């Protein structure tokens, strides 16, 4: 996924990716691995306390 893509999750409505970054996180074996996260601006701000918000790429699906 990239900046400008429409995305969705099960908990929120539809959003648009406005920024992306690569972050490293430690695993249980103490190895660093890189994960993608995206700043998403959600279309349903009543369900979101902070808008926009950073979301892990694994939690997002492309909206059709």
Structure summary:
Helix content is 0%, strand content 52%.
**Mean pLDDT level:** 80
SSE arrangement, N to C: EEEEE
Low-pLDDT residue spans = none
| Number of distinct beta strands | 5
Distance between the amino and carboxyl termini? 13 Å
| SSE class | mainly beta
- What count of helical segments does DSSP give? 0
Order of adjacent strands in the largest pleated sheet? 4-3-2-1-5
What about the largest sheet?
A: 5 strands, antiparallel
Tell me the Rg in angstroms: 13 Å
Question: How much strand?
Answer: over 45%
Identify the overall geometry. globular
| Fraction of residues in helix | under 10%
Describe what this molecule looks like in 3D:
A hairpin with a 5-residue loop joins strand 1 (6-8) and strand 2 (14-26). It contains no helices and 5 strands. 12% of the residues are buried. With 64 residues, it is mainly β. Helix content is 0%, strand content 52%. A 5-stranded antiparallel beta sheet has the order 4-3-2-1-5, with no helix packed on it. It starts with 5 loop residues before the first strand and ends with a strand.
């Amino acid at each position: 996924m990239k900046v400008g893509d429409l995305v969705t999750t099960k908990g929120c409505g539809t959003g648009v990716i406005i920024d992306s970054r690569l972050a490293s996180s430690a695993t249980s074996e103490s190895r660093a691995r890189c994960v993608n996260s995206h700043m998403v601006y959600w279309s349903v701000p009543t369900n979101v306390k902070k808008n926009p918000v950073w979301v892990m790429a694994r939690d997002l699906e492309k909206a059709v």
